[in-house]
Amino acid sequence: MSASPENPNADFIVPHCEEAIGYLHSDDDLLIINKPAGLLSVPGRHPDNKDCLIRRVAEIYPSATIVHRLDMSTSGLMIIALHKDSHRALSRLFQDREIEKEYQAVVYGKLASIEGFIDLPLACDWPNRPRQELNFDYGKKAQTHYHHQGMTDDGHSKILLTPITGRSHQLRVHTASIGHPILGCEFYAHPAAKAAAGRLLLHASRLRFTHPYTGEMLDIQHDAEFVD
């Protein structure tokens, strides 16, 4: 597969992201930040692809470590650990599916139903990685709820996606599988849907979980600009 901003390899230089990171919550144990679209979560393989979210955060919080990632083209909320114990505790919350996540997206065309549930197993498409594929033989369980939230002026659907599982590219593959790919998607959108937006219209808009140390219920929301 050829290199692209969606699929940077060792020879591809990612365009510099000018947009700043937003800091929405901070305490002694963790941060919740808003990652801009176009910024890598961790350094890329090319020596010129070192600018990334965790490096920028570490300039202010030197002990910061990554707990989970968003694709470069996906914007939105991420949790950053500030010490080793916090990293272990937060990783356990993700593993046990105790962190509720919601994503806002714009998908191609008009959905036939107001809400739905997609239960389709996913596996890596190894010859074309990092692409994923539906695979009923050895794919891992992947489940997503979706809820229609209105239409754009040009006839596409604004939706709220709630992943039950957290497979790679799950939301992209699931929406494409029901005939409504996310606008701007490099991997799974047909040409008209890919060309309908200048970026991937997918945004991690909400994180809700119990703080592993204070017991406080954190419920952080930040809407995408493209759903206004």
Automatic annotation (TrEMBL):
<comment type="similarity">
    <text>Belongs to the pseudouridine synthase RluA family.</text>
</comment>
<keyword id="KW-0819">tRNA processing</keyword>
<dbReference type="InterPro" id="IPR006224">
    <property type="entry name" value="PsdUridine_synth_RluA-like_CS"/>
</dbReference>
<feature type="domain" description="Pseudouridine synthase RsuA/RluA-like">
    <location>
        <begin position="29"/>
        <end position="177"/>
    </location>
</feature>
<dbReference type="InterPro" id="IPR020103">
    <property type="entry name" value="PsdUridine_synth_cat_dom_sf"/>
</dbReference>
<comment type="function">
    <text>Dual specificity enzyme that catalyzes the synthesis of pseudouridine from uracil-746 in 23S ribosomal RNA and from uracil-32 in the anticodon stem and loop of transfer RNAs.</text>
</comment>
<dbReference type="InterPro" id="IPR050188">
    <property type="entry name" value="RluA_PseudoU_synthase"/>
</dbReference>
<protein>
    <recommendedName>
        <fullName>Dual-specificity RNA pseudouridine synthase RluA</fullName>
        <ecNumber>5.4.99.28</ecNumber>
        <ecNumber>5.4.99.29</ecNumber>
    </recommendedName>
</protein>
<dbReference type="InterPro" id="IPR006145">
    <property type="entry name" value="PsdUridine_synth_RsuA/RluA"/>
</dbReference>
<dbReference type="Pfam" id="PF00849">
    <property type="entry name" value="PseudoU_synth_2"/>
</dbReference>
<keyword id="KW-0413">Isomerase</keyword>
<keyword id="KW-0698">rRNA processing</keyword>
